[in-house]
Design goal:
- The protein is mainly α.
- It has twelve helices and no strands.
- It is elongated and about 65 Å long.
Length: 248
């Protein structure tokens, strides 16, 4: 194994995580990476990068690395998520900070115009979840259809966001239909493959009122008009018959 990079404040957690992976491998008898790749189904290159300390590996890679060393991967999940969260905090850009400030000021939960990729849109969506004070478990309780683990994987960008998951997240965050429509349209821009499903979901949105009331949207009270785009809050997750169209 090549030497770990010299530590810097913003990389300490990543380097420490890589060092722990190296220690685990040594404790397992230093199995060759080729053997670890065979045991885990993870490529040799990915395993090598995992303990390099320069880039955070995906959870799938870490899971395979740990199992290839004969250890239980569950305890490593929290460690990996802690490093991931620290990196996300460090990467919060001025644009993201401005977005959160705009949400707080206007109470209009629109997507960022600068989101030009699936990852950028997903990062903003996760910011919205956190801004609304929702843990992944609470999100899964309020928006059934996906597990908290699946929501987490999508919000981290490790799995593509789907229209069905997005509509559930927006509902749980109490986003009004006008703003929800903008999020759905933004998803189509970054993931054209979701276009057809987005159109199906948008066709169920209530029509905007002629004289919208001001105020915060209340997703659980269909009599209260939302502030977002002068429409009612986005309706609840798709009906039961729609759940077969996507997997959790």
């Amino acid at each position: 194994m090549s030497p770990l990079p010299s530590t810097k404040p913003q990389k300490d957690k990543l380097v420490l995580f890589a060092a722990r992976l190296r220690d685990l491998r040594v404790q397992a008898g230093s199995p060759p990476l080729a053997e670890m790749a065979r045991r885990s189904g993870v490529s040799l290159a990915a395993l090598s990068t995992a303990h390099g300390g320069r880039k955070l590996p995906t959870w799938r890679t870490v899971d395979g690395y740990v199992r290839a060393c004969g250890a239980q991967s569950a305890p490593w999940r929290d460690r990996w998520e802690a490093v991931w969260a620290a990196q996300q905090a460090a990467r919060t850009s001025d644009a993201q900070a401005a977005l959160v400030k705009r949400w707080a000021t206007t109470r209009r939960f629109t997507p960022p115009q600068w989101a030009r990729s699936d990852i950028e849109l997903t990062q903003a969506l996760d910011q919205l979840r956190r801004f609304r004070g929702l843990s992944l478990r609470k999100l899964a309780r309020q928006a059934p259809g996906f597990s908290h683990h699946t929501y987490g994987v999508m919000l981290r960008g490790d799995r593509p966001m789907t229209a069905d998951a997005l509509i559930r997240i927006l509902h749980s965050c109490e986003v009004g239909t006008g703003d929800a429509q903008r999020w759905m349209e933004a998803l189509v821009r970054v993931r054209p493959s979701e276009s057809r499903r987005v159109q199906e979901l948008l066709s169920r949105f209530p029509q905007p009122r002629r004289h919208p009331a001001e105020g915060l949207p209340h997703a659980r009270n269909s009599r209260t008009p939302g502030a977002s785009g002068g429409t009612r809050p986005v309706r609840s997750a798709p009906r039961e018959r729609d759940r077969g169209r996507q997997g959790a």
